[in-house]
Amino acid sequence: MARVKLHGCRIALALVAFLLAITAHALNPDRNISQYAHSAWRIQDGYFSAVPWAISQTTDGYLWIATASGLLRFDGVQFTPWATPGAEKLRDTPVSSLLGTSDGSLWIGTQFKGVWQWKDQRLTQHLPSGNWAIGAMLAARDGSVWATRLGNLDDSGTLCEVSLAHPHCYGRSDGIPSDCCATLAEDAGGHFLLGGSTSTVRWGRASSDTTVYSIRGSAPNLNFTKSIAIFPDDSAWIAVDAPGPGMGLQRLINGTLQPFKTPNWDGSSVGVEALLLGRQNVLWVGTSDKGLFRVRDGRVDHYGSEDGLTSDHVIHLFEDREGNVWVATTKGVDCFRDLAVASFTTHEGLRAEEADTVLAASDGTIWSGGAQSLDALRDGKVVSLQTGKGLPGEQVTSLLEDHEGRLWVGIDHTMSILKDGQFTPIKRPDGTPLGFVVGIAED
Predict the structure, then answer these.
(1) Is the pLDDT of residue 169 over 60?
(2) What phi and psi, each to the nearest 5 degrees, are found at residue 330?
(3) pTM of the model
(4) Interior CA angle at 251 toward 248 and 255, to 5°?
(5) DSSP letter assigned to residue 76
(6) In b/e form, how buried is each residue of 75-89, taking b as 16+ CB within 10 angstroms?
């Protein structure tokens, strides 16, 4: 089979061996989301016939999309319905969950038709059909594959180890509440964290020890734990699909659920649908109506439909092998990838939409002048002098730093030296303005 490689949200056929050696790079966490390259495929443009629910990748490099009308494969150029021999068994079947594993398998969780494994051009059913849907799937540290079931299960169990020759399911008699489990994660000790409608459950399959953490929402039977992300320090982030006290984005630290808050953002103010722990401990947060957030070291960044996201209702998040982040929404699929060149715009805090003159100063400050603003970029933060707020004019026309480190600034029909926040005008001998200055040089 031809091996494919994701690169820049696209896949190149690996026809020669050196293409397989391209190094994977994660997104630069020091950049804002708006500084990444963004690609979007929308339902309204005909890329999908139904809402995309989940995304995964197999070891051959192909990307897979689960939808309500079946399974799609992305080769970097187009999304095509899965039509491999054997696929007719799942034709038009709603696919709710996907998992690519290191042995080359694609595990396919469906609604009403159980769990299937696609490997070595063979499609094998691992859980039988029934009046239930697959909620989540997980490859455990020991190599086993697990799936959760949602629906009318009676006592047959909600959590199933599906990679066994004879899959086994666990339920209430094993300490798992009946309202479980919409999502599934594994901590460093091999315990599973299972999210349900009224609680998050920590369950140990070896010792059958169970701890239940209640979700104190205003409507507990209507709110679900939709996603769980576990950090290397074993702290867990819990996504509840409704805002309010005890809901939204919560953290499970030392056995206690705590809300996540910063001076500028309250994680409990949004309903959270999806979480992704990316590389370098970057947490991506998909919400039900506020788009995409990203949390790193207490700093929160946002990207929504006004910025170009296909929809503010995010359903699923996935990071591919090359570090690109994929977002499934109710209106399509988005991909974010890094660029060699970073852009700074009004999204990053610049006041002027146009940059008429730019200067890199010796102290590392980047100065940008334009209409009604002189902006200084330092350590990722922008400080601005604006017309009427420190800038003595309307238009910055030119910039120069001289050998003494003084900043010369052309503004309208004048020239000034900026030092310690104060502008000192440079005039002609007769006291009149120097004139419109478009360039400055030092001999």
Answers:
(1) yes
(2) -70, -10
(3) 0.81
(4) 130
(5) S
(6) bbeebeebeeeebee
